[in-house]
Amino acid sequence: MASAILYLGVCATSLRAQSQTELPILDLNHFAPSVREQLRKAYDEARARSQDSEAIGRLGMILQSYEQYEFAAICYERARALAPTDFRWGYYLGIVLVALGKNADARAQLQDAARQRPDYLPAQIRLADLLLLTGDRRESQRIYELVLKKSPGVVFAFYGLGRIKADINELSAAVEYLSRACELSPHFGAAHYALAMAHRNLGQTASANEHISLYQKDRFTRPALNDPLLDAVSDLNSGAFERLKKASNFEAEGDLEHAAAEYERALEINPRLVQAQANLISVYGRLGQTRKAEKRYQLAVENDPNLEEAHYNYGVMLSGLARYDEAAAAFRRSLEINPYHAEAHHNYASLLEREGRLNEAAEQYKLAISNNPALRVARFNLGRILVHQGKLAEAIDQFLNTLTPEDENTPRFMYALAAAYARFGDRERAIMYARGARQRASDLRQTELLGLIERDLQILEKSR
Question: Do 306 and 332 have their domain in common?
Fold first, then answer.
């Protein structure tokens, strides 16, 4: 076939009839050449074996691996009609219907799959997750508990039960379940966040801050569900996610050039991989390649206008370029999509503060802290505004919450606390914290800050 269009059919409903031999139309122009060839071969096989569920189902699996969910669903419908006792096609159909947001249809498919193979735990977990998403907590809880009876170490069952208990305000039970999820998977970012919120609602601030910090480190990390059937789908993708993983590792190591190259390769394989688009905005911005960053931003929002991270990363880049009005608009857009994005609140606050809009900035800093109590820089900046407003006791409270864990920012935070105590009239505490700041600045060889601290400390000690 010379064209990059596969003639895979006319409409989904006609495919429910087994006599239908046409398959839906799929435009492959935006795929890399190797992927186009892979899909053409699968299509040719499915067309040649139009009554073979394996050939039709395999085409659906390949389409699913490239997130072509609508077309994959049509193939799975047909494969299931040809082989109604084959568990795979109904299970895969349920998964892609979830991806398409067709939750009622997905529920029916996953319930059938769970009944057909009650021993296949991934099907039970996916059904329970969908039931929780759609508000059926009772049935979701029943399935999670059944899963744990069969297999006591399934992290997603503990996570799901913890979320249910948090939703119904049984917070102690929520902490128990979510703590177990975090023990089983220490880098499960979403579980740490849910646990932090449960601790916060119980008034356990220290524990909440601890798990928010862990969430910040692993916010995009999620344990893999041991699902051999879905792994078989992922294996058909020509490597986009492997490239994404490799790029993320390069980025974490600070090797931005190689990170950008790997993200670009991932997008050559799968142009709809929006996370790579969003990450490239940040990477190109940090490399000073503004035009490339802007292009990636435009492509990202075309693919998914509600990708909060794309707007946030673009705002960070614009701030660095002193394009403050545009940056503020990008942060506001990110917050419209996700009002709980603490860093977006913080960065937007800093722009408001720059304009002298201190009351509005303070409110944004407070929102940042509310959504991430461990975001120490937000507490520090809020504290500075409170000092300016003469609210010294409130400022001191914010500064006290910046002192742990210790890092390169601790001397600066401790110095601000000392200054606040000095203004408050508590000279002894001011001296104590100034000395602590001096020692830490000295240890970290922060010579400029050390000079400022020593100057102020001498004034404080002379006036005792």
Answer: yes
